[in-house]
Amino acid sequence: MPDFIQIHEKDNVAVALHPVGAGTVFKGVTASQDIPQGHKMALKPIANGEMVVKYGLFIGHATEDIQPGSWVHTHNMATNLSGEVEYTYNPKIEYPPEHKQETFKGYLRKDGRAAVRNEIWIIPTVGCVNDVAKRLVDANQDLIAHTPNIDGLYCFTHPFGCSQTGHDHAQTRKLLAALCRHPNAAAVLVLSLGCENLTHEQFLEELGDYDPDRVKFLTCQEVEDEMVAGRALLKECVETASQYFRTELPLCDLVIGMKCGGSDGLSGITANPVVGRFSDMFTSMGGSTVLTEVPEMFGAEQFLMDRCVDEEVFQKASDMLNGFKDYFIRHNEVVYDNPSPGNKQGGITTLEDKSCGCVQKGGTAPIVDVIGYGDPVTKRGLNLLYGPGNDLVSATALTAAGAHIILFTTGRGTPFGAPAPTLKLATNSPLAERKPAWIDFNAGMVADGARTIPQAAEDLMQLVRWVASGHKTRTEEKGFREISIFKDGVVL
Questions:
Q1: Does one domain contain both 258 and 307?
Q2: Which residue, 11, 117, 247, 481, is the most exposed by fewest CB within 10 angstroms?
Q3: Quick check: pTM over 0.90?
Q4: How many domains does the chain have?
Q5: Residues 326 and 402 in one domain
Q6: Which residues contact 144 (CB under 8 A, 6 or more apart)?
């Protein structure tokens, strides 16, 4: 197993692929101290104020003179980031080679969309009825117990839907309506209280045209017993869902979300590039992928901006990036208040360091569209989605955008699941070995030298096919599913 990797020929640091002891030699440079896994070692002298280069890009500057062989981290380097940036469009568009078409066993909806699950969802419009939604799920499992083509009955609780105003209120409404449209839900029960400021009329307007056989509504204040009324409506939902059976469908009809969390210094070397190669393969066969976490694009914009297919998409990307920076500034926050303590412990030093690793998930394919929070994917190819880095919020946004499956890379490990099946990809083998109940795929094999990135991406493609055809993820096995809504406003 190699000790270090120099990611790009221009890099003046190398990354330790496993814990490396002092005295280890790499490319003629001797480590002057122990270097933890995922952390950086200087390959040449870096003067105070000089740029630290990783991925061939600037990830910060030295805050003191750094000698070759030294550990490079928060004690001797810092970010270069500040506020908004004026971007220029210099298109460099390359289309990945076509990948062979693949199929999976999925569900074909009446509107022509594909689905990987045939579930019944309860969506509360307000937090006041969360426990009613939970009780309805628990009390009605018998309705699906003997219907093997229904994959489950679930609810997605949240604290909002009332005491919100303006944009915040509209954002909650939009997100919940988007979840109601998700193809993995064969039928949906929308559960309201009756006095919340997210009214039934507002929700109907947001939802637009819908199939009344598929979407049912219950307002708890308007019935004598919401459990009895809810069971009757769920029986109708079961009748609708029971009409669907798995059939052979083109894999390219799916939308795949891409997300990272609990990242470490190997994220941008193993799991994220594997997902990026998968994205290139998947979009080349006509599929759609979605990359979000806008704050974790800061400092790595040049990986993305010149790949926009035209100036209109470029302008949308520019507005998205600077719009999110303005969101930080409006709240008197610096745009570079990241990475997290866990990220730093794993070897990520600055936001640029984190971002350059994060955007590896986008591969090299052209960016075909930039979509807003709560908006659906409408174009085949690689899409950018407005959303924060927070794991729960961004995974919910990916689901609302129509992601059938989410690929979630992690170096530290995390057990949560989104409403869409959430595949966890370990960046390192020790994590995969320590947390087999959390991890679905070990991309640490790349660092171990057991698989190349293209080989691992092919393995991942087959795992996606398997999950799309009904195999449960680790989070699904545990019943771990939740949502979190992006909030930016007052509570009344």
A1: yes
A2: 247
A3: yes
A4: 3
A5: yes
A6: 120, 150, 152, 153, 238
